[in-house]
Amino acid sequence: MRRPLIAGNWKLNGLQSAAVTLAAAIREGVTRDSRTEVLVCPPFTAIGVVSAALKDTGIAVGGQDLHWQDSGAFTGEVSGAMLADLGCRYVIVGHSERRQFFGETDEWVGKKLRAAQAAGLEPIVCVGERLEEREGNVTEAVIGRQLDGALAGLSKEQMSKLTVAYEPVWAIGTGKVATPSQAQEVHAFIRARLGTLSDGATAREVRILYGGSVNPENIRGLMEQTDVNGALVGGASLKADSFLKIVRC
Ligand code: 13P
């Protein structure tokens, strides 16, 4: 198992100047021997300047989405090769906001994660249930379907290089974080399902991040859980101070 990963998803925030200021402040606070691996995912337009600001620091840069085609007549889209060309090492795939607002399906998520790996990027595949699904006791059915739909047919090697993020939709941007035991329960389910889709040893190599209202106060309890291998942070990643506290959890 690799170091835990703390990733900041900046979403639709930050003109280039603000993004560079934030990246520079994060750079000042992260040491090379950090116990956690650190990743920031700026909007597409700021990736170039953030990559330049973080060059040779060990802090990774990622995209928030990609298209599965390398090139062609796909107006508005960005490919894995384009992200890699800007210095990205990672890319988020299947975020619930993409699923909810842009109609992203499990099939697309599967195509995108394969395209990301083919371009030499590490995909972070997001899954998570909505509030009514949790209340209807179908959380595992929903997440199982999301995983099967996107990951079925991956080789063990492809699977071992994945990162999965469990982001319950009801916890995103709401201040309502999952309790450590709620997170652990779903993370354990995800790891078992990855094992079914490959094998137990492969599944144990996959980092499973928690996302949804993570902040400096709640990160420690989450990270103490056996199957929580890092965090995908939204709002609290937009301020260097709170993001660095999470990184040092
Ligand atoms: P918040 O941390 O703002 O709840 O967002 C989580 C998220 O969606 C990260 O991808």
* Number of strand segments: 8
Counted up, domains total 1
What is the spatial order of strands in the main beta sheet? 1-2-3-4-5-6-7-8
CATH fold naming: TIM Barrel
The major sheet is characterized as: 8 strands, parallel, barrel
CATH top level class name: Alpha Beta
| Pattern of helices and strands | EHEHEHEHHEHHHEHHEHEH
Shape from CA axes?
A: globular
Low-confidence stretches: none
Rg for CA atoms: 17 Å
CATH homologous superfamily title: Aldolase class I
| Unique bound compounds | 1,3-dihydroxyacetonephosphate
User: What number is the mean pLDDT?
Assistant: 98
- How far the N terminus sits from the C terminus, by CA atoms, comes to 18 Å
Name of the CATH architecture: Alpha-Beta Barrel
**Fraction in beta strands:** 5-15%
Structural class: alpha/beta
Helix percentage: 40-55%
Count of DSSP helices?
Answer: 12
Characterization of the model:
The protein has twelve helices and eight strands. Helix 3 links the parallel strand 3 (60-63) and strand 4 (90-93). The chain has an eight-stranded parallel beta barrel, surrounded by five helices. It has a single domain, classed as Alpha-Beta Barrel (TIM Barrel), CATH 3.20.20. It is an alpha/beta fold. Helix 5 crosses helix 7 (139-151) and helix 7 runs parallel beside helix 9 (180-197). The protein has helices at residues 16-29, 44-53, 80-85, 96-102, 106-118, 131-135, 139-151, 156-160, 180-197, 200-205, 219-223, 240-247; strands at residues 5-9, 37-41, 60-63, 90-93, 122-127, 163-166, 207-211, 230-233. The chain is 44% helix and 15% strand. The longest helix has 18 residues, at 180-197.
